Structures
1.
Amino acid sequence: MRAAVYEQYGAPEVVSIRDVPTPTPQDGEVLIRIRATTVSTGDWRARSLAMPPGFGPFGRLAFGLRRPRQPILGTELSGTIEAIGAGVHEFRAGDEVFAFADAKFGCHAELRCLPASGLVARKPANLSFEQAAALSFGGMTMLSFFRRGALASGERVLVNGASGTVGSAAVQLARHFGAEVTAVCSGANVDLVRALGAHRVIDYTRADFTASGERYDMIVDTVGNAGYSRVKRSLAEHGRLLVVLGGFLDLLLAPLAGRIRAHRVIAGPALARVEEFDRLAAIAAAGAFTPVIDQTYPLERIVDAHHRVETGRKRGSVVVTLGA
Ligand SMILES: NC(=O)c1ccc[n+]([C@@H]2O[C@H](COP(=O)([O-])OP(=O)(O)OC[C@H]3O[C@@H](n4cnc5c(N)ncnc54)[C@H](OP(=O)(O)O)[C@@H]3O)[C@@H](O)[C@H]2O)c1
């Protein structure tokens, strides 16, 4: 099968299309023929070793000391079940699905085997393969953070970086959970973010949300410039700061930060749960979360897709399509 492969860390050009062995489903696995996948900020970090401040030494530990341990990137996919391994009862050949391989990667390929009882679900019929491929990275990140932060209906939520993959998922899911949403993005993305359901939008090039005197029950930082010391006066009593992107120091200090003011700082990696994946599928099928697609590239142009992600300015997700 064809796959996008990288064998050394570096610029997008380290990725090339190669023929690699076709996988065979083991017991309990499904073999998925991939129709669409994404190049995410997770792929960008694993390819380039661009890590958040203070995490530099952990990059090679996570992805491979001398060279990438997993030469095929890609955290999420949509496609059709090609074959099933022994003991699989959840799916049949021909079923349309989407799936999240998360940090195991391997979705920038024509085929991927995954455990049937894991993060694989039927593709919502109202979404295209391109949209379904882009559900998991942002959606699972935000379901995990909203669970840890115990988001409640009626709460005031501010999303910093509302036009990216994670931010655009945060806006839609917060709305779905009944929150009153304020979104922060650049002027060019104000209309997009309002269309996603934000009640109020702040253009960060014109106003600093921390200077307005407004207070929020929850602040979601997907940009890495809204640490606790900057936002503490914008958090209501018992407010929570969700540090989706932060430095090593933020992670270390999270358990202590905010204690005096009865705030909570929640940081660290999102941990995907199977029941949350099924919930994500149901929310999307109900029309409450439709991933935003920035641009779509065929697999042959995956290097261009990596370049687009590296700008840090994409709107939603960069999708890569395969086959028909
Ligand atoms: N903790 C976890 O488990 C976890 C999980 C997933 C992702 N992440 C991290 O979360 C980060 C965001 O991921 P993503 O995929 O959503 O990235 P992305 O799609 O590249 O989005 C980044 C967004 O930041 C916005 N932005 C840039 N400067 C800004 C500023 N000064 N103020 C407000 N917004 C600004 C950009 O919008 P404009 O063009 O409008 O400025 C862009 O849409 C990544 O660093 C990723 O590594 C962490």
2.
Amino acid sequence: MSQRFVRTVLGPVPERELSFTDAHSHLWIDPVPAATSAGPVLNDEEVILRGLAAYRQAGGRAIVDCQPSGCGRDANRLSWLAALSNIAIIACTGFHRRLYYAPDNGLWAMSAREAGDFFIDEIQHGLLETRTGHRLVRPGFIKIAAEKSLEESPQALFEGAAAACLATGLAIEMHTERGAAAEEFLAYFVGEGVPANRLVFCHMDKRPDPGLHRELAEAGILLEYDTFFRPKYQPNHYLWPLLSQMLDAGYGTHVALATDMASINMWQQPGPVAFLTYIKPCLETQGVDPNTLQQLLGANITGRLAIQEQ
Ligand SMILES: [Zn+2]
């Protein structure tokens, strides 16, 4: 079998070298001054580097960064952080929720064709802000953001993302609004010709309906869970029982765990290291076998992101 690679900000890395990988987080978010709604900001180098060092020390190897351009991404920073911390960072093209952008950002006026061309251009020729820097960064996936329904979501951008996925083979990681309308989005992408195994649906544990999760997993979607450190979602009451039901039902290959650390407060406490110093020991205590543990904490997400590099 030929080797498959994950595209990190420092270049392609063989899938099997990545091991522990946080499936959805944020490593740098610049302020977006004219944004409709004040989005999260994450720009304290010292705190971030300290967090990455602890993560590396505890066995962490990679983190998926879910911030696309126009809403705070700085992939030059990401490659600098990756080089200093020895953590593989996987950056993205794509788009986030509209409220995180300046209203006049050109993305929101694009046709499906223009959006697809834009995403494909970043995938093939490097993330925009890195083209004048000293290191060209290529994205490892396409991040998109759904609203509560398909109707409320930017369908031209969705169509563009689907075209980029089909043209390049890169996976799509989709923000969901607490899992809303996941069935509808699955049907949409299947209709666009995107295989379900190219799709990762994020924050699905905010809609802890085991029947729905089994159905999505059965269809081939990778489900991302990340409320471990968000007490308002009562993870002990919802996330953990949901996860054990999914494992009991044999869907250990269809769930990826993450911390989604989109604020400096979260980077300070518990910090990205908690992926390995809290989530991992909890899984062990629950008797999750080592192979499943590796899948939940890395192999499932890197397996989805990996492509044959040309
Ligand atoms: Zn996020």
3.
Amino acid sequence: MNTLRIVGLSGSLREKSYNTSLLRAAKHYGVQHGLEIEIADIGLLPLFNQDDEQSVPAHVGALKEKIEKADGVLFVTPEYNYSIPGVLKNAIDWATRPYGKNSLNGKPAGIMSVSMGSLGGARAQYHLRQILVGPNMYVMNHPEVMVAAAHEKFSEAGELIDESTQKKVKEFLVAFAEWVRKFEK
Ligand SMILES: Cc1cc2nc3c(=O)[nH]c(=O)nc-3n(C[C@H](O)[C@H](O)[C@H](O)COP(=O)(O)O)c2cc1C
């Protein structure tokens, strides 16, 4: 079977981000499930300004091109005030513009979330699902990965050390690969 190309977006710019750590774990495990996950750095994007959307800044153009060439997008996001971080919304807004050039249009997507709280970013995850209706993404429903109490699941070095979470992420990736294949042209 051919390898599926996935763009991975983390909603946290923090150097020791648990979400980026989970995305790195997914990238690592993804290989054995036919997924080649490229992590895109959304921290390089300027704040969205509609004045610039017709001739987009270089980092925006590069992100849009990566997404357009990819078979799917994997979002891994923290929860900020019951929603997704502004940096992730900023990336989504850039990716959808200008009108008629929505790079996310019709792409399959997966969402995982990590939080230090007890709900694992569930509220942010559901908010992201709502947001992705606008760009016309097809988000996989199940299985859901919401990693709670993140500080107990990762090592100092950012390795995912919790076995039950490792298992859930692997199950997620198997299902995600199947989901993305359904949209192959
Ligand atoms: C501005 C801000 C708002 C936050 N709001 C929430 C929240 O609503 N729910 C929650 O579970 N955690 C919240 N947190 C805590 C995050 O879960 C925690 O900082 C987490 O480690 C962020 O993910 P990261 O490690 O990938 O950066 C918030 C953190 C910040 C900085």
